[in-house]
Amino acid sequence: MASGDLPRIWNQFLDAAKKGTNKGRSRSYKKSLCKAALKFSDKLLGSGYINEDRYDLWEECIGKVCAVLEGDDDMIQRTVREYFLGLHSGELSDFSIEFTDKSEGTSIGNICEVMFSGMRRRFFIKCHQRGLRSTSLSIANRYSSVNRPFVQEIYVYELLSLIKVGGEVHFPLPITDTKKALYIATEEINFTIAKQLTAQTVNSNAMILVDFLQFILRLEDVGTNGGNYGQTDEGDAVVVDFWVIPKDDYVHTDDQCSHFWNALHNYYYNKRIQDEIENPKLPKVPKPGDEVKKSKGIKKNVVKKLKVEDFRESLFNKSIVRKKQCCIRSIKQQLYTQE
């Protein structure tokens, strides 16, 4: 590319970025301009034209452009590719990544198979900040593009990954001027979904753990969706997708509590907790004529300390000073010492 073309491309980038991020335009028109601005930006970066004088303006514009495109497949793939390339250790030729469309689920996203650092892994990429699929469930309607990512959702994904109930999780961050965009990459797990389990193959302990997690973490679309959880061949619990309940709605209804306690697969473990809650142990009130148990008393160890005179006697007269250690007890209201 001729160096004389760079100022023209720079102006084209600024013009496309400005028009593509202004309000009042249709979304499809803005996306087409922002994609053009992104291509201009790549050319400028490749030629080293974004120097110190232009960097601040470029950063401001590219952040707005990426914010418009944050739910676009090209932007998702670009961000995820750069993220895993940053984790790669080895020759560039040993790195590869391929994307396919995620045909199921309520959120926008992709599936990627990536080869990095000598490992081949498969990840599901999720992005729900910029629109939902037309086949999405009604539960997703509470989420809109103006919401920031729920912090609870990040914590839940990280927790499930740490306790090996969910796949390994990564959070690639796009370059935007907002804090609304977040991509969640979870590693694929080989497991049997719950709706395919039978009474002979199901591990009740795994189902108890799933039910406990969805109750205590305030999750939805887990127990009611047999495709979002299940168990591995070893019988370990697996949760692959969920919806978090906004913290403003962190209230359990009576029906939810009753369902949790009365669920058949929770009977053994939860019955013990339920009995403790519904029938707490009360202090025993003695009846007239009952023998009253006496207190055990107080135990105290007493150790005599050396005085100055004792130390002097031991030092100059070479004598041994002994002190007794006593244990004071109370037996039948009488004090005595035990040496």
Rg computed from alpha carbons, rounded to a whole number of angstroms: 33 Å
Unreliable segments (pLDDT under 50, ≥5 consecutive)?
130-146, 264-274, 335-339
- Amino- and carboxy-terminal Cα gap: 97 Å
Provide the structure class. Answer: alpha+beta
Can you walk me through this structure?
This protein has 339 residues and is of the alpha+beta class. The chain folds into four domains: 66 residues, no CATH class; 119 residues; 87 residues, no CATH class; 39 residues, no CATH class. Helices cover 36% and strands 19% of the residues. The strands form four sheets. It has a five-stranded antiparallel β-sheet, with helices on both faces. Strands 6-8-9 form a three-stranded antiparallel β-sheet, covered by helices on one side. Strand 8 and strand 9 form a beta hairpin. Helix 1 runs parallel beside helix 3 and helix 2 runs antiparallel to helix 3. The chain is extended and about 100 Å long. It starts with 5 loop residues before the first helix and ends with a strand. The C terminus is likely disordered.
